[in-house]
Amino acid sequence: MTCILHISVPCPLRQLFDYTSDLPASQWEIGTRVKINFANRLCIGIVMKISEITDQVEITKLKAIEERLDDSKLIPDELIQTLLWVSRYYHHPLGECFQTALPKLLRTGKPAELDTESWWFRTEKTADKKIGSKQQQCLDLLEDYVDGISQSMFKQYLGNVSSSLKSLETAGLISQQQKAKLPIPSNELNLDLTLNQQQQNIVNSVWEKHDHFQPFLLEGITGSGKTEVYIELTERALKANKQVLILIPEIGLTGQFVDRFKKRLNTTIVILNSSVSDKERKQAWLLAKAGLANVIIGTRSAVFTPLINPGLIIIDEEHDSSYKQQDGLRYHARNVALIRAQKYDIPIVMGSATPSLESLYQVKLKRFQLLELTQRAGSAQLPAVRLVDNSQANPEHGFSDILLKAIKKHLDAGNQVILFINRRGYAPVLMCHDCGWQAKCKHCDARMVVHQHRNILFCHHCGFIQRLVEECPECESKSLKSYGAGTEKVEQHLQKLFPETPVIRVDRDTTQRVNAFSDLVADIKQGEARILVGTQMLAKGHDFHDVTLVGVLDTDQGLYSADFRATENLAQMITQVTGRAGRGDKSGEVLIQTEQPEHFFWKNLIKNGYKKTAESLLEERIDMELPPVSNWAVIRAESTDREEATAFLQEFSAQCHQQASEDVLILGPVPAIMEKKGGRFRAQLLLSSAQRKPLHQLLDRHISVISRHKLARKVRWSIDIDPVDLL
Ligand SMILES: Nc1ncnc2c1ncn2[C@@H]1O[C@H](COP(=O)(O)OP(=O)(O)OP(=O)(O)O)[C@@H](O)[C@H]1O
Ligand SMILES: [Zn+2]
Asked: Which of 114, 339, 390, 617 could join 180 in a cystine, given CB atoms 3.0 to 4.6 angstroms apart?
């Protein structure tokens, strides 16, 4: 034994574990992976401290590590520091934070080596005899690429040219070398776009601070050209030899977004989203760490990508709730990104047409600098928005005459129409006309949703599936009727009402297959689909220039929700979907069908827009001391035994009360709004404080005691800091 390694282990325990190594301390670095035997199984841990002493057991009883996996540290210091912060802030075991942050192949111990392939380079030699046309094409292409061309780039651009390359090599005209495999860049660069004055000013304001930590909130109305601002900023950072990390929400938008970057920037761009394979994810992570990838575009967990030359972090659609992980380590990527930008001392730009109240509050506190784009880019104008009283809707198909006429008018003009309904499936209620029976999930406090295409009843909360019944299970009556509408029903009615017009549906059900989403988007762009029915997947981020009408159906439930964020979310969703109309040269129109055309919320949003609406919502939060003004933590517990979940939280609450400070309010425990889900009863305890510190101190003091309580092992429980979803 020559040194002791203090190791972070992927397990729920909140401590490091000590092992010995027969290498001297000088040969170890923090951030190196090791294989260890932990509780009789092999697992991968991360070295967090190196010393000569242990306070865990007698030194002689310590186990030795099984294997050292990296020659030097895998995880850079900055990322380790960030994860230590994450573990502290979210009160989550460090070992599990590493699990979230590392690509799967690295956390399961695969070698941290880059995949390589053959790269070809032009030699000094000139051809002394005439060469074949394929070979000439290869040489011509090499003229454009001083850094060489990989085997896969050749294949992509020229088809199979292996034998030509071999001949050129034999003739001494080109040489090859094994180098890291890189993603293939676009070969149709399109560099000509001039930013308008507002865009240019924003780029300048951000760039002025390029060597400092400075958070910016870029509030730019829909279609104002935020993406172009990101591209220009990225270009500036690239010119300064810096890397740029860009986060985008999880709504299948990556393809279009990345295409725009690839076409405008001649650089190595890697992608980290859910459609990337484990192998590619590992490669992208290592390329970023090595500084071989200059732009990293990814969804939530990409926020943990290591950078060697960081220059800028960008978060698109910063208000999007997919940035908050809803299980395990419940981190918010915007929060983590801010910490990373601070550690790197670089600017961070958070953009949205509908900023979160969290970020607007930071602007109010002067912690974020506000940048605004108030006009649509190019010649596009914001669409006109009107409310339509739902009572005029046809009871059969749910559309009002006004909306139907508008659809017809826009189709006749050769344009595309979006119908937005934020509910997938055919109908949310199946009911017996005779006895009143309703199809409910036997595992959840929720109704089963009718999915007619698949002939099933489907619980959207736990995934439980049943065959669609034709007869009431209670009274055997055949008069079952579905109520309400989802995307399937809307699609079906529209197809009947407009038999000549192609209708497509974009929701989670039609986009499950790999590439299904990008295929649908391609159909839309080419104008093949004329009526587009979809959920929020269709509402955000897209730039379809021929869409001139957006119809919004049935969104009133947002007005009555028990969640205090519901109106904020509704205002964001409506503003985003509204923003899909009129993005090209043609002007757009939006019709919102509502039960409550007189409701203050609608009047305010339509008359005053998102910005004013958000301001008044923030004033309400300030008056009522709700987040983001106060700080919340929710302790959740669930169990198959209804009493147990509550009993555990009572225990938790009692613990906290023992030394409660007046600064932290403890509310509950209360049953969750949907108490039963997936066969488990759920309850929650809410902790709230005006200052963040006392809340965190309270949790620090009690968590380790609580986690050893006997009930803690019987129930599933979790801590959610800054919860976004209280249902
Ligand atoms: N300076 C410019 N000149 C001409 N066209 C522009 C300019 N900037 C952006 N555009 C075009 O305007 C459209 C909208 O831009 P972009 O998609 O960047 O907006 P956005 O603010 O990101 O939109 P949203 O938030 O609604 O998704 C795009 O088609 C884009 O190419
Ligand atoms: Zn269910």
From this structure: 114
